[in-house]
Structure formats: C-alpha cells, structure tokens
Specification:
It is built from 12 helices and 11 strands. The relative contact order is 0.15. The chain has 2 domains: 45 residues, no CATH class; 214 residues, Serum Albumin, Chain A, Domain 1, CATH 1.10.246.130. It is an alpha+beta fold and 348 residues long. A hairpin with a 5-residue loop joins strand 3 and strand 4.
C-alpha cells in the first residue's frame, strides 16, 4: 500500500495547488533535492504556476479537431499531418497500402522537421502557429514528393516564414453519460523518470529536462533534434509530444484519443484518426492496427511487427525507404461515439 502517495493525493484534494507546491509536500521535494544534489528549492516550487492556453483547432474531412497547444508540439504536428494528407485518396488506396504509407511517412518527415526548428515555449519563442496551421502551407510541403523514391531527410528543411517548434507517459480518455469528455496525458518522461522517489511523499521525480534541446542539432533520448526554439532557459517549459485530442462532428462529440509513447505520440494519434475516418475501422480495430513512425531524423521508418505486408515493404524499400522493427509504438487509449450514439473503447 502506497501510504505516502495516498497522503500526497489527500493534500492535493484538500488544498489544491498549495497541497503540492507549498507546505508538507514541497518540504519533502526540497529535502529530496538536497539529498541528490539537485537545484530545485522550496521557493522555486512556490513560484511555479501552470499555464492555461487555448487549444489548437483544426478540421479534417468534416471533423473538428481539438487538441493540445504548445508547449506540446503534439497538437500543431497532428493538424499539420492531417492537412498534409487531406488531398490524397487514402480510403481508395486502402489501409497500409504502399501509396498510403508513402504519403503518411513523407507527411510525418516534413512535420517533424518543422517541429525541430519552430516549436518551443511560446512565452520565450515566437512560434509561427498561424503559418504552420495554414492548409495551403502543409499541402505545399508535399509538392516535392517523388513517387519513385523516398525523400532524403537531409533534403528536407523546416519551412521558412517571414519574421513577425512506451515511455513513462500515461493517457486516459473519459466520457460521461452527459457527453462531457476529457482527454488527458501526463508524463514523467522516460521509464521511472530520474529513478528518485520523494521520501515521505511517495512519487517519482521526472527527467523532463531531456525534452529541452541541450545542444543544437544533438538528439535527446527519443532521437528528436531541436534548436534555439527549445533551448534551456530559466522558467521556460520544455517542448513535449503529448497530443490529447477530441474530435467533434456536426457539433457533437465523435472521438476522444491520446497515447503515451514519447516522440511517437503524434504519429500514433494521427494514424488512429485516419484508421477511423479514412479506413472505416471501429475503435478496437483502429487501436489494434500495427503502426509505423517517421520523425525526420534519424532517417528511417520505425514499424511494429507485421505492420506492413512483405510486398508493400519491398516496394517501399525499392524506393529507398529504410525500416527498423520495434516491438511497440504507442498504446492508444480512445473512445469512439458511433452514429447510433454508442460508446466504443478498446480492450487490451
């Protein structure tokens, strides 16, 4: 029984923000920091306040997409990917057909290049959000797609604009009988964070500093590249990949979706939405479908076992695509509202 963690949760319940960032729990955190040679003080904790920001809004084939704003890169990236593939007949080509996979991979490649350069904490960096979410921009990024061969990531750069960016993550999707929906993602970054449990409080400390760009062009734990937009600075929030998302159709709830998975979060949510909207899958099928992922650098396509048929993979390899097999990509948790008003959710 985790009695210390239970006490921490009671303090948060009774005192709200002050139950964590001040008083007893703050003392425990500060003491743990001293024991480990950390830098965070009680004063730092007291001065920290969460930022409330407006969600990213987009549209995809009649669905309104409501998703997470910066400092997560997830929402902008998701809408960019959806816009990038919106003019292609994915449903006609079919699920994970070679043309379908090629278009999706090339969209992912270009969006992650934009992520590396343009996305960061909007309190510290002027994120070109309006330009990145312009449908014409994202469609234009696909103009140099070559059907005969893979685009080299070294040939893809972030878009330029006129001056005016399963790991230890948890997601849950909830809908109540009134139709109120919550899509919530929380994380301590990698497995077990920094491996330190706060004595007396019962919870793990995160290692989210790895989500900053420690050095321009140097990859983090997930292989993601970043530059000045996501550089470390006092009071700055690091760029994440969290993509909690809600879809509406005709003003009514259609889907609640999100996932853990580090840098693969955005592409997992992207593919789950396409599985439902373009390929007609139910929620269980959409979540169970094997996934693939491209994040610009490293220049390869990560795939789950049996995600592609040997024939499709061979066709894409002949065009220059490189594949890297991994056991799992994401662990999507989602709820779909059918036309009959029935809630569907996956079983694991």
């Amino acid at each position: 029984v985790q009695t210390e963690l239970a006490n921490t949760m009671r303090l948060i319940r009774d005192k709200g923000r002050a139950g964590f960032y001040e008083g007893e729990v703050a003392n425990y955190i500060a003491e743990e920091m001293k024991r480990g040679g950390g830098l965070i003080s009680k004063e730092d904790l007291k001065n920290y306040h969460a930022a409330w920001r407006k969600p990213i809004l987009g549209n995809y084939k009649g669905y309104k997409v409501i998703t997470m704003p910066p400092t997560s890169s997830g929402g902008i990236a998701l809408v960019q990917m959806l816009q990038s593939v919106s003019n292609y007949p994915l449903s006609k080509w079919g699920f994970n057909a070679d043309s379908t996979v090629q278009v999706m991979v090339e969209a992912e490649r270009r969006v992650y290049a934009d992520r590396a350069k343009h996305l960061g904490d909007p309190d510290f960096w002027k994120v070109p959000q309006k330009q990145l979410l312009e449908p014409a921009y994202n469609k234009s990024r696909m103009a140099n797609l070559n059907w005969d061969k893979a685009t080299l990531s070294s040939e893809i750069q972030a878009g330029e604009f006129a001056k005016k960016e399963s790991e230890e993550t948890t997601h849950f999707s909830v809908v109540d009988k009134e139709g109120n929906a919550v899509s919530l993602t929380t994380t301590i970054n990698t497995s077990y964070g920094n491996y330190v449990v706060v004595k007396g409080a019962g919870f793990l400390l995160n290692n989210e500093m790895d989500d900053f760009s420690v050095k321009p062009g140097v990859a983090n734990y997930f292989g993601l590249i970043g530059y000045e937009a996501n550089a470390i600075a006092p009071n700055k929030r690091m760029l994440s990949s969290m993509t909690p998302t809600i879809l509406e159709k005709d003003g009514k709830l259609a889907m609640v979706v999100g996932t853990p998975g580090g840098s693969t979060i955005m592409t997992s949510v992207f593919q789950t939405i396409l599985n439902v909207v373009d390929f007609g899958m139910d929620m269980q099928q959409a979540v169970n479908a094997r996934k693939f992922h491209h994040q610009w650098l490293p220049d390869r396509v990560d795939i789950e076992p049996n995600a592609l048929t040997p024939e499709v993979q061979q066709k894409l390899e002949a065009k220059g695509y490189t594949f890297f097999k991994r056991n799992g990509i994401g662990r999507v948790d989602a709820i779909l509202v059918t036309k009959q008003g029935i809630y569907q959710w996956p079983f694991f």
